């Protein structure tokens, strides 16, 4: 492998739903856009499956039989340097992690320069919480991130969980999106890769922008995860093709992100302004964006404080004048 | 190590996994850096020796010169433990022979530590041997080993039958060897290496191998369970064994060192 490391994402859910397959799709297509040789594996046996969305990239796997286990796990450590995504639904959850634990697979993966990460999409059901706590106990040395899909039931690092069993507070956050766009994404032949490359026909510009913003945010999250896993030297870079910027030429642009004017919010990001759209520049990090937003917020707070001070001075002056007027009237009586 | 220990592993029926248990014991003692020598009584080719070539000699336990080779050197050998894998059907005759030569008496006097691993099969005939074997032992430590080579329950579902065999010898210790996945057992068989060496993905020569990581994982899991059984019973304490002071600390599973030669 030449000493390089590759991520192994285990996207799983102890209960139904939780946004698991959506996350698996996003991860897989992220690496497709980044020109990485990604391989996805589907351990689910009910609809919809990852293999239905990405049939050319996904291998349907079964680990109930030992021969199938040998085929599956040997493939995961195959010497191909590419990231791998495993989609594990609630039915395969127990057997998958029990087998992993029994054969010590994560330790073996590390010996092959593979960094495993568990992405746990779940709900607040007590059984789910218990299974998640078990996973944390079994694999204390493996990165574990809850998936927080705000349109689904939020996961489980909540107050009901004993503190010592609480799962890591960092998470992969799937931001909210209007339901009509979620329905669009749920269609089986919808591809994030194709959407990124070209605006779908008949999709309103506003929706197109919203979905692109949403997807950009998610891709930033994935890049942050790569840094978390230790890939800061070889993280995946993604650039939008030039044809996307032509389509939004009528919108106001900023070539560089500038601090906003005093008392105003930072300007809304227009299509084509993200770092992903400027392949010739080093990507603007999420940290820089947050810094700009923080500066903007601080500017507004300063402006409000100044305005409050002015009103306080005016109130004091008015009160003084009133008192003088009253005193004057009393003296003249 | 205060006094030498002799471990006899046997059964009066074949096919109960006697040599498998012997192999796990050799790996366990190696893991704790206890110098051990082994004797394989399956003449002429041996079975244990195929897996633990460097530390095992093939002997004829019924042959007096070979008996002398084993028992006359117990005190003089560098090995802290002498392990004898007794041929199927020869456990009782071997214990009788040991009684005749005064070996059992020496154990009773505390001159040596004698441990017998009686490997049981899931049959009434095998369980009938328990009382007989226990009667021939006086101050030897008696381990009854249930080797789950199949899905047998050893009559655990029938309290009366179970008690009639397993509760009859109150000082005996029961050890349960869990079942190893057949495919994993077969690959170790084909590889002809100790379990620990298989887990480490090495050949007998020490060169890297390419065994299945899944099967290695199953063998590791199984061996850990077996070793935890030995830990639970205090086997090292019974053997009076301590780690060799000259041996460097090694957290991996080492292969056996060279032991006694003829």
Low-pLDDT stretches of chain A are: 152-169, 245-284
Distance N to C terminus of chain A: 100 Å
Strand order, largest beta sheet of chain A: 3-2-4-1-5-6-7
* Sequence of secondary-structure elements of chain B: EHEHEHEHHEHEHEHHHH
CA-atom Rg of chain A in angstroms: 26 Å
How many helices of chain B?
Answer: 11
General shape of chain A: elongated
Number-wise, the strands of chain A total: 7
- Summarize the largest interface: chains and residue counts: A-B, 12 and 11 residues
What is the CATH class name of the largest domain in chain A?
Alpha Beta
Structural summary, described in words:
The complex is a heterodimer of chains A (333) and B (262). Chain A has 333 residues and is an alpha/beta fold. Chain A folds into two domains: 6-228, 3-Layer(aba) Sandwich (Rossmann fold), CATH 3.40.50.300; 254-333. Helices cover 46% and strands 11% of the residues of chain A. Chain A has helices at residues 20-33, 50-53, 66-76, 90-103, 105-111, 126-138, 179-186, 192-197, 205-228, 242-246, 286-332, and strands spanning 6-12, 39-42, 58-60, 84-88, 114-121, 143-149, 172-174. Chain A has a seven-stranded parallel sheet, with helices on both faces. Chain B contains eleven helices and seven strands. Chain B has helices at residues 18-31, 48-51, 64-71, 91-100, 103-108, 124-135, 159-166, 182-191, 195-199, 213-232, 235-239; strands spanning 5-10, 36-40, 56-58, 81-85, 113-120, 141-147, 173-177. Chain B has a seven-stranded parallel sheet with strand order 3-2-4-1-5-6-7, sandwiched between helices. In chain B, helix 7 links the parallel strand 6 and strand 7. In chain B, helix 8 packs across helix 10 (213-232). Classes of the chains: A alpha/beta (333), B alpha/beta (262). The A-B interface holds A 66-67, 69-70, 73-74, 77, 102-105, 108 and B 181, 183, 212-218, 220-221.
């Amino acid at each position: 492998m030449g000493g390089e490391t590759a991520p192994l994402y285990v996207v799983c859910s102890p209960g139904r739903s939780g946004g698991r397959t959506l996350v698996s799709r996003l991860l897989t297509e992220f690496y497709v856009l980044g020109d990485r040789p990604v391989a996805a594996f589907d351990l689910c046996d009910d609809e919809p499956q990852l293999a239905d969305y990405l049939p050319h990239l996904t291998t349907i796997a079964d680990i109930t039989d030992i021969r199938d286990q040998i085929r599956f796990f040997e493939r995961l450590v195959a010497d191909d340097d590419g990231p791998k995504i495993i989609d594990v639904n609630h039915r395969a959850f127990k057997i998958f992690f029990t087998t992993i634990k029994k054969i010590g697979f994560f330790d073996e993966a590390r010996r092959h320069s593979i960094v495993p990460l568990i992405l746990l999409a779940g709900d607040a059901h007590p059984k789910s919480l218990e299974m998640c706590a078990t996973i944390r106990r079994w694999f204390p040395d493996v990165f574990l991130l809850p998936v927080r899909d705000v349109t689904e039931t939020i996961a489980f690092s909540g107050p009901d969980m004993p503190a010592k069993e609480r799962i890591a507070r960092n998470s992969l956050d799937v931001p909210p999106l209007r339901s009509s766009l979620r329905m669009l994404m749920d269609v089986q032949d919808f591809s994030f890769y194709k959407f990124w490359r070209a605006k779908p026909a008949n999709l309103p510009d506003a929706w197109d922008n919203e979905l692109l913003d949403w997807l950009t945010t998610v891709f930033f999250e994935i890049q942050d995860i790569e840094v978390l896993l230790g890939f800061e030297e070889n993280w995946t870079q993604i650039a939008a093709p030039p044809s996307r910027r032509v389509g939004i030429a009528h919108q106001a642009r900023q070539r560089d992100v500038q601090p906003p004017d005093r008392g105003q919010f930072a300007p809304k990001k227009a299509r084509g302004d993200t770092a992903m759209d400027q392949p010739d520049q080093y990507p603007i990090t999420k940290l820089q964006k947050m810094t700009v937003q923080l500066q903007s917020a601080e500017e507004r707070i300063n402006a409000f404080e100044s305005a409050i001070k002015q009103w306080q001075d005016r109130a004091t002056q008015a009160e003084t004048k009133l008192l003088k007027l009253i005193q004057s009237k009393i003296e003249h009586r | 190590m205060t006094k030498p220990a002799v471990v006899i592993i046997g059964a009066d029926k074949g096919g109960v996994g006697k040599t498998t248990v012997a192999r796990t014991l050799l790996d366990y003692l190696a893991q704790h850096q206890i110098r051990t020598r082994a004797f394989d009584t399956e003449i002429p080719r041996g079975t244990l020796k195929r897996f633990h070539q460097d530390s095992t000699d093939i002997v004829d336990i019924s042959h007096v010169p070979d008996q002398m080779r084993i028992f006359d050197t117990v005190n003089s050998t560098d090995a802290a433990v002498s392990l004898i894998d007794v041929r199927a059907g020869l456990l009782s005759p071997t214990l009788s022979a040991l009684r005749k030569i005064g070996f059992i008496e020496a154990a009773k006097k505390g001159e040596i530590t004698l441990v017998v691993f009686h490997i049981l099969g899931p049959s009434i005939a095998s369980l009938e041997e328990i009382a007989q074997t226990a009667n021939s032992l006086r101050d030897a430590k008696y381990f009854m080993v249930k080797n789950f080579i199949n899905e047998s329950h050893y009559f655990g579902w029938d309290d009366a039958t179970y008690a009639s065999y397993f509760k009859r010898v109150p000082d005996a210790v029961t050890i349960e060897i869990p079942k190893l996945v057949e495919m994993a057992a077969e690959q170790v068989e084909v590889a002809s290496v100790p379990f620990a060496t298989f887990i480490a993905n090495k050949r007998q020569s020490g060169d890297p191998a390419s065994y299945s990581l899944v099967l290695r994982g199953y063998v590791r899991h199984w061996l850990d369970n077996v070793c935890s059984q030995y830990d639970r019973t205090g086997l090292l304490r019974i053997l009076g064994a301590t780690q060799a002071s000259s041996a460097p600390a090694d957290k991996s599973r080492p292969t056996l060192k060279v032991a006694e030669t003829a």
